[in-house]
Design goal:
The structure holds 2 protein chains of 2 kinds.
Chain A lengths: L16 E7 L11 E6 L12 E5 L3 H8 L11 E4 L5 E4 L2 H14 L4 E4 L5 H14 L2 E4 L6 H10 L6 H7 L2 E5 L3 H4 L3 H5 L14 E6 L4 H5 L2 E4 L5 H12 L8 E2 L2 E2 H13 L2 E6 L1 H4 L5 H14 L4 E6 L6 H12 L5 E2 L6 E2 L6 H6 L6 E4 L3 H4 L2 H7 L4 E4 L12 E3 L12 E4 L5 E4 L12 H16 L8
Parallel strand pairs in A: 6-7, 6-17, 8-9, 8-13, 9-10, 13-14, 17-18, 18-19
Antiparallel strand pairs in A: 1-2, 2-3, 4-5, 4-19, 7-15, 11-12, 15-16, 20-21
Helix pairs in contact in A: 2-17, 3-13, 3-17, 4-12, 9-12
Chain B lengths: L3 E8 L2 H9 L4 H7 L1 E4 L1 H7 L6 E6 L2 E9 L7 E5 L21 E9 L8 H10 L3
Parallel strand pairs in B: 1-5, 2-4
Antiparallel strand pairs in B: 1-6, 3-4, 3-6
Chain lengths: 468, 132
């Protein structure tokens, strides 16, 4: 079955709207690049101003929400200085004043934490690393609480992977392990595995497996659902590896899965031509963490004795992969980098954001394109309540509510000016572009970071060596 | 009052995804992240109904959440969508990886009649009150 993306011809074509085709959706790491966006022209509809996105065809429900709800009541339109014990006293200021205030905090800090960077462009990432350098701080991206353990496993075991296009065209077995694409990457199965024909895989020639601790709607749609006990994925993978080598396991079940189901699954794998494993946070956030991914990579290597096999993380934020790439090509390390001694130092568990906060190891926090107050353990968030926090974000978030300085920014890939790129989950870089103007006075992450670097350099008397 | 030993799994839902794009202060996000999904048999064991509040506890903390019937069988598993409320139950020990354990934690659930789910501001106020 082939699912053709919807086309705007006849659906959105109206003299009152212009259509922009092939827009990249900046929600998840799948970076769907076939979105067709309708934008209003001058005075088309009552109460709808010019330049409003009124439709985003082909986008999933979450992406659709992102495109159409850019300008709701949660959008921040002016920089804010917040004070009071609960940060509820808000003073709206100019961008210049907000940048000066933020730079003052960062220049004064002994060990600022710069965190986020997953929902912004590679170009903004470059500037954020420069900010961390001039501040002498710790810089971390959201992969440390996402697929960071998977990256640590890759450093240990290597990885055999492929592009999503290759998987779509070749894979006859696709395994989703510890993830729920229906909730987190809603178009992934439609574009790359279950509901699309590939060049060499026609309808009915592909089997899709879901392995997880609980069944979801996705489990009903696949060839077989394998329910594994929580935190026992490692054991199941180890047994599958042994059976692929011809060992017989004398047990009734393993990790809650009956041996009959395991044997059937292993037999299918042995007959496969091309196996693709997509793994999610079910493996990285449960007991075992990086070791689970090492085991999954070793399983992939074992499968290569029987078929071509590849493995890929289901990256969450749209450019979290890019933040790893930029950090790696700059410092040699993909996340959790300390620059306090002037040389990059990487030690997850010590220089990772949650650990830094939980140990009280920072005296100022700068957040861009992330919301740690909503995603970090409460004991780490507590330290953010003790130190000055600066947040750059287009919309209000849990973190903006505990911030001292809030600087609104333009949406990357929709409103932001300049060259913008992002890395898809398979490492393919895609160019993003501006399709509508940002609200008046709202600048891009890259521009805001540049202003901050400039001001911190001025305050600290540092000569800037990276000029743009 | 009955209580139930259970395995806690936090994770994504599509509603939570829509909520975070609408805005973290939106009603949609609040509703999507202040619920605990339980199997009907576990709900019965607790003597509560869908929509009632329960107190979920781990060794790291506790939180009041609303009961929602899990759409698929999941006996012994409590699923809470990612968000500030779920994070009250998560510890910051990362086993030298940077990643806290957010799935597969041991938890205890008990009914919490009359107790309300905290708003985000109330949640931060409670955290502030515990800062020494």
């Amino acid at each position: 079955m082939t699912t053709d993306p919807k086309d705007t011809a006849g659906i959105l074509a109206t003299p009152r709207a212009r259509i922009v085709k092939n827009v990249v959706c900046c929600f998840c790491g799948a970076l769907c690049d076939d979105i067709q966006v309708a934008i209003t022209l001058t005075g088309p509809l009552p109460r709808v101003p010019e330049g409003t996105i009124i439709e985003a065809l082909n986008a999933c429900r979450i992406g659709h929400t992102k495109f159409l709800k850019l300008r709701d009541e949660h959008r921040i339109l002016k920089p804010e200085l917040r004070s009071g014990s609960d940060k509820s006293e808000i003073r709206q200021v100019s961008l210049e004043v907000a940048v000066k205030e933020a730079a003052k905090i960062l220049a004064k800090a002994k060990r600022p934490l710069i965190y986020g960077l997953a929902s912004t462009s590679n170009e903004a990432n470059v500037k954020a690393l420069e900010l961390a350098e001039v501040c002498g701080g710790v810089v971390d991206n959201t992969s440390s609480v996402c697929h960071g353990p998977g990256i640590e496993a890759v450093q240990r075991a290597g990885i055999g992977t492929a592009t999503l296009g290759k998987i779509k065209n070749y894979a006859d077995i696709v395994i989703y392990w510890g993830c729920n694409p229906v909730a987190a990457h809603p178009r992934h199965t439609r574009r790359y595995s279950q509901f699309i024909e590939g060049m060499f895989r026609k309808e009915g020639e592909r089997k899709v497996y879901h392995i997880d601790v609980r069944s979801t709607r996705f489990s009903d749609e696949v060839t077989d659902f394998i329910q594994v006990n929580p935190s026992e994925d490692y054991e199941l993978m180890a047994v599958i590896r042994a059976m692929l080598r011809g060992r017989e396991i004398q047990r009734d079940s393993v990790a809650g899965v009956s041996m009959r189901q395991v044997r059937e699954f292993v037999a299918t794998l042995k007959d496969a031509e091309f196996v693709a494993i997509f793994f999610g946070l079910g493996l990285t956030q449960s007991s075992g963490k990086d070791h689970n991914i090492t085991q999954a990579i070793d399983l992939t290597a074992e499968l290569n004795h029987h078929a071509k096999a590849v493995i890929m993380p289901m990256r969450g934020h749209f450019n979290v992969n890019g933040s790893n790439h930029v950090s790696t090509w700059t410092y040699g390390f993909p996340f959790s980098v300390s620059l306090e001694t002037g040389a990059p130092y990487y030690m997850p568990g010590e220089t990772s954001a949650v650990d830094v906060l939980a140990r009280g190891g920072t005296d100022a926090v700068f957040i861009i394109a992330a919301d740690p107050a909503a995603s970090f353990p409460a004991s780490a968030v507590k330290h953010m309540l003790k130190v000055p926090v600066i947040t750059v974000d287009p919309k209000r978030s849990a973190t903006t509510e505990i911030s001292d300085v809030v600087i609104p920014s333009a949406y990357v890939g929709i409103e932001a000016e300049g060259i913008q790129t992002a890395y898809r989950m398979d490492g393919i870089p895609l160019q993003l572009r501006k399709i509508i103007d940002a609200p008046k006075g709202i600048e891009s992450d890259e521009h805001i970071l540049d202003l901050l670097v400039r001001e911190v350099c001025r305050l600290k008397g540092i000569k800037r060596y990276k000029q743009t | 009052m009955p209580s139930l030993e259970i395995i806690l799994v936090t994770g994504r839902t599509r509603r939570q995804g829509v909520g975070l794009e609408l805005g973290k202060l939106s009603e949609t996000y609040f509703e999507a992240t202040t619920q605990v999904r339980l199997d009907p048999t576990d709900i019965e064991k607790l003597g509560v109904e869908a929509g009632d509040t329960v107190d979920v506890k781990t060794e790291h903390g506790n939180v009041i959440l609303k009961v929602v019937v899990a759409p698929r069988p999941s006996v012994g598993i409590a699923f809470i969508p990612y968000g500030p409320w779920a994070n009250l139950l998560i510890g910051s020990e990362t086993d030298s990886t940077g990643m806290p354990t957010m799935k597969g934690l041991k938890a205890t659930i008990s009914p919490a009649p009359g107790k309300q789910v905290l708003t985000l501001q109330e949640l931060f106020a409670e955290l502030r009150a515990t800062i020494s």
